[in-house]
Design goal:
Length: 308
């Protein structure tokens, strides 16, 4: 069992739609001995959001306040939409001064990618793509795989992820590990909140997008010159991706082959990250080494804040 931690809830995007899932998550965390703070993040409502833009931005900016004790984990309640509305209102200088070198883990995925990219690009802060309160900790059936990997990533200085899916392109690369939700990422192209990562290892995922829509967003990254600056593109899970009759056989595999033919960098598949129960936790902004061959790939990660 993981050591007792202080977990503060943050909700920069949508409000929870399932009160039962919130209660399941809170009960599980408390039964494990964790202290859960910031419950107001699960209760605020404004339109489709977990509070007004000002409320949600203030929730993040309070982590810059040196008079307040930092939690061990700042856990996103859910994704949805809304984080991009906060990016111009965050205190990046204050957050950088307060959080740099501190053993605190900001964790979430999906729409939370916007916050992660903004903190990386504007404050140089490494966060974690990983489980969220409602969809993961509050799932009807808790994934032991996701929980084990979550605590391993947050409490150890390095870890190696081994994927057995055969890879079409032998690859050996090292660089900054970064990535997240593809649609959110594409919305930041051309803004100051897109990290200027050179020679990185970029991972992507998405949910309920047709193959052609995924390809179009990847092309956006490609045409913006982002993909040519990376050493590898690692594809996570594209949950709910399905073709229609009008696609005439153009499916996810066809999309992947098209991407391989144009971007130049190796494209790997099989990363268990995204809108799935069994997801891994990945530091966004850490150092990583990638080795891939016909038997699968290994991703070794270090250089991120950990709780010890």
């Amino acid at each position: 069992m993981a050591a007792s931690r202080t977990i503060e809830l943050i909700a920069p995007s949508g409000c929870p739609q399932d009160p039962a899932a919130v209660e399941r998550a809170l009960q599980r965390l408390r039964e494990e001995g964790h202290r859960v703070e910031g419950l107001e993040a699960t209760e605020r409502r404004y339109q489709r959001f977990a509070g007004t833009d000002a409320q949600r931005a203030a929730e993040l900016n309070r982590f810059a306040d040196r008079s307040l004790k930092l939690p061990d984990i700042a856990l996103a309640v859910r994704g949805g939409y809304g984080a991009i509305r906060l990016l111009h209102g965050l205190d990046y200088d204050g957050l950088k001064k307060r959080l740099t070198g501190q053993p605190i883990a900001f964790v979430g995925h999906s729409d939370f990618t916007a916050i992660q990219f903004a903190l990386l690009s504007q404050a140089g802060l490494t966060t974690f793509g990983g489980p969220m309160l409602v969809s993961d900790f509050g799932a009807v059936e808790l994934s032991s795989f996701a929980m084990a990997h979550f605590w391993q990533a947050l409490t150890t200085p390095t870890f190696t992820l081994k994927i057995s899916e055969p890879q079409a392109q032998p690859t050996s690369a090292s660089g900054t590990l970064w990535g997240g939700n593809l649609a959110t990422m594409a919305s930041l192209v051309g803004t100051p909140f897109m990290p200027a990562v050179q020679g990185g290892i970029l991972f992507i995922e998405d949910v309920n997008e047709q193959p052609f829509r995924l390809e179009r967003m990847i092309y956006q990254l490609h045409l913006a010159g982002i993909l040519e600056r990376q050493k590898a593109l690692v594809l996570g899970c594209f949950t709910g991706c399905k073709q229609f009759e009008s696609d005439s056989g153009y499916d996810l595999n066809a999309m992947i082959e098209q991407v391989r033919s144009v971007i130049g960098s190796p494209v790997l598949t099989g990363l268990p990250f995204g809108h799935v129960p069994n997801l891994v936790t990945l530091p966004v902004g850490a150092r990583a080494k990638l080795e891939a061959d016909a038997h699968g790939f290994e991703l070794t990660v270090d250089g991120y804040p950990h709780l010890g």
